Every structure is written in C-alpha cells, then in structure tokens.
Amino acid sequence: MIENPVGTAPGFIVEADRSTVIALPGVPREMKHLMQETVIPYIRQRLHNQGIIRRRVLRTVGIGESMIDERLSDFMTWANPTVGLAAHTAQCDVRITARATTAAEADSMLDELEKAVRARIGQFIYSDTPEEAFEAVVARLLQNAKAQVAVLESNTAGDIAARLANASTDNSVLSLAARLGDEKTPESVARIVGSAKSSTGYTKELAAQVANEVRRASGATYALTILGTEGEQEGIYGRTSGSTWIGFATPTRTIAELVPFGGKEEYTVTLIGNNALRLLWQELK
Predict the structure, then answer these.
(1) Number of folded domains that form the chain
(2) pLDDT digit string, tens, across residues 250-274
C-alpha cells in the first residue's frame, strides 16, 4: 500500500514476474505528491538508481495528427529516443523522450531529435511549454508588439475574442470584439455584409472586404473576420459540412482563407478559431 498523507484514497503497488502495476488516486494534487514522494523513489530503487528520462513537448497547430504521423513516421520506430503524439481538440502535441545514464546525455539526444522534428514540421510548432494554450502565445506576441486586433465573428459566436481576452493580462490586445449583427458591429460592415450576402452569400472577396472595413472602422493594427454558415447539423462531424471564410487584414495586405466546415459545434468552432489565430500568429512571428 502507498499511504496518502494529503488525501483519503491510498495507492498501491503490485509486483508480478514480468511487470509492476502502480495505481494512484486520480486527484491531480494527490497523484503528483505520491509520485514525487513514493513512486519515483521506488522506481529509482528498482532500477538501482540508474538511468535518467527526459521529455519535451512540442505543441503544434494547423496540422492534423495524421499529417504529423506521416512526416515523422520513421522517428516513431525508434526505441530511444522516442516520438509520440497526443491529440487535443483541433491540435496535437509531439512528445519526444530520451533515456540515458546522465541528464546531460539525455538532453543532448533530445536536442538532436528536436532539431530533426523542427526541420520537418517547425512551421506548425507554436510552443515547447507543456499545456500552453495557442491563444496565450498569440496574445503575448500582440502585447510585445503593442498591437491590437479587431475580431468580428458569425458562427464562432465570440469564441475567438473570448480566448484572446482570457489569455491576455489586461485585455488590451482587443480593440473590437463583436458578433456579426450585434450592436458592436460597425454600421459600414453591416451594410457590406447585408447587401452582399443577400445575393451571393459568403465569398472570399466578401471576407477580405469585411476584414479591411473592420480594421479601418476599429483603428486596430489587425482584423480577423469569421463569416460562416450556421446550420444546426453542420460541422466536421455533422450531417453536412457548411463552410467558413476567414478574412485577415494587416497594415500592408489582406487575405481570405476557406475552412471547409461551418456550424456552431464546439470542436468545429475550436478548429476555425485555431485557423484564424494561426494567420495572426504567422504575421506576428
């Protein structure tokens, strides 16, 4: 038994001929305490204090798990160091791990492997800090640049602006956070969307035009506009796909990018948001 001085549920260790099973309480605070105070010393004793394991996490956005797997497939056959993937909502982590007799040796192995991984998918890696949110990186870049972004959203219903607001320390990165058609939508933008959508629907040209106008009307450094269909059964896993145009305006250029999914389902909204924030992140980098 593993006594638990910080909770009521104990853990336990079962040793078998070919393996050892270690079970711990699921409460993170208790689990981490028991890992540090009991499990790691136990493992070191079993291994006669030999061996160091180091791990790094490379957080990616804008590339799917299957594409990463394709580009790094040869690395994933290695026994040491190793490469593994951990998928999250609309993004994926690349975990690289090395085992060696010393920390310096393990770190050296990881340095070489990380360099090789970055050579293949570096443009999609936004952080090497575990659990760091994509919007936190984007908000920090905006603050460092003393820049602001105006965000106008339709089917994403304010989710992108909320992510940036929650990630920034003082909410200074947003000059406008509007939902298409609400009272914060500039009148000039409402006129453009209303006259165009009635006849042509959302298009690449309209997304670019609206992004330009949102930037001009708000006075922001950058503008992101989300013009997407809002069917109840649309989305990545919906009965129909729908579509969303992302408009992005900077002081020197305007682009529009199609996401081939619409709707308001959570996973789809997160994916659309990541694609929009990716355009801003690439510009700020």
Answers:
(1) 3
(2) 999 999 999 999 999 999 999 999 9
